[in-house]
């Protein structure tokens, strides 16, 4: 079973890139972030024509998350992150696919920091941590994946000294990610590649992709019930070099069939 996460940075504007990647890579399940499309503008037919069933949580101009599956329609179990009834951002959707619970998330960027946006990021992180603790208690296989907007360590960022005041790399953000992982989650990429330089995002400016001046901000967290089934993981880095592409590359894992 191959599961991927991809921040598409505007699903309709990048649709040719997404469809080409889906055809070439053929993941079984895909989590998408930053749809930047209202609910009614999700390109359902183009995606279903490739054999994927989809659920999505859209929002005009911003945010937006979706789960695609070749195994039939994902059974939605949660839409939006609990804990703040005032928060209307489309940043979390969760479903059961093949007895596996998959949470697709788009964590707030948080810049400029400090400030209200950074406060919102940390509050969202805390809500995610509380909610994730409940998922762990269920003992069912769970994956939390998506754009976390955090580089966990200096290994995950090109020239870390340039990022010390950025919301994605500030100590509070990294501490929040560490606290989440230490509940009992496994960072799939780091489990298989503990020491390698691996990036998932390259800015559009200053030839960042060409210079490999990247960040690792798209993550797969696996709970103990599924972590032992992890076979492989990687980044489809070349997709970042395609024309009119997202500034993120797709990230994927492969699991043993259970």
UniProtKB/TrEMBL annotation:
Cofactor(s) listed: Mg(2+)
Keyword flag Magnesium: yes
Enzyme class name: hydrolase
Enzyme Commission number(s): 3.1.11.2
Organism of this sequence: Niastella soli
One Gene Ontology MF term: double-stranded DNA 3'-5' DNA exonuclease activity
InterPro entries: AP_endonuc_1, AP_endonuclease_F1_BS, Endo/exonu/phosph_ase_sf, Endo/exonuclease/phosphatase, ExoIII-like
Family label: Belongs to the DNA repair enzymes AP/ExoA family.
Gene3D superfamilies: Endonuclease/exonuclease/phosphatase
One Pfam family matching this protein: Exo_endo_phos
Domain Endonuclease/exonuclease/phosphatase span(s) in chain numbering: 4-248
Protein name: Exodeoxyribonuclease III
Keywords: Hydrolase, Magnesium, Metal-binding
